[in-house]
Design a protein that fits this description.
elongated; mainly alpha
């Protein structure tokens, strides 16, 4: 799983040895630094979220019940019968953690196939502009590729059928958005939301401390917009 990441880092690190010899910032420098930053952000997201409790114990990305199902959860808890809600929330987060751990090649492949024609705008566009560009250009395709992984993970969840039936009924009455009426679709979207959130945090860290990065190309390029 790390082979693709290692190759990306090796390629651009090798390029950096030559690029660092001049202070002139070239388009290739910018593209290379953005690619490295995204690869590093993917690694950070998978390492932090693709482990047991990676989603469950992180309030920023923890997957909770959608929409009006949270009202039902509140009622169950007030009645002292929260076991079903707890089990369902645990199962959804476990599925997200499993899917994330298996999805790094998909993320890196999408990143490598992404066009960076407007790399200069991305570089100067904001503290998470590369992550947002990646999400805007690749998010839909990633959702389609993530779905089978999430489905495989949720197939092992005993409450899957109950969730789909319950949420499906809620969707018919307009209580639950149609896209949330299926557990695979809901967990897929929430998994990607979590991954992109952590990627954005990592990108901000790189931009916030370019000279603290262990790569000369990252230092050179992001140092110009510090």
């Amino acid at each position: 799983m790390r082979t693709i990441t290692v190759f990306i880092v090796w390629f651009w690190a090798s390029f950096a040895a030559f690029a660092a010899e001049t202070d002139t910032l070239t388009p290739e420098d910018t593209t290379g630094a953005l690619t490295l930053a995204l690869a590093q952000s993917v690694d950070a997201a998978v390492d932090r979220l693709g482990v047991t409790n990676g989603f469950l114990d992180n309030p920023k990305v923890k997957i909770t019940l959608p929409g009006s199902l949270q009202k039902a959860e509140g009622l169950m808890r007030s009645l002292g019968i929260s076991k079903h809600a707890d089990n369902l929330i645990l199962a959804m987060n476990r599925a997200a953690e499993t899917a994330t751990a298996e999805a790094k090649p998909i993320l890196l492949d999408a990143m490598q196939n992404m066009s960076l024609d407007n790399a200069e705008d991305i570089l100067t566009g904001g503290d998470d502009s590369a992550t947002q560009y990646f999400r805007n250009t690749s998010g839909e395709a990633l959702s389609q590729k993530f779905l089978p992984i999430v489905k495989n993970a949720t197939d092992q969840v005993g409450l899957l059928k109950r969730y789909n039936e319950f949420a499906g009924k809620g969707a018919k009455f307009g209580l639950v958005p149609e896209k949330h009426a299926n557990i695979e679709n809901y967990v897929t979207q929430k998994t990607l939301d979590g991954i992109f959130l952590i990627m954005a945090e990592e990108e901000r860290a790189i931009r916030g401390d370019p000279m603290g990065q262990g790569n000369k190309l990252l230092q050179k390029v992001f140092g110009t917009v510090k």
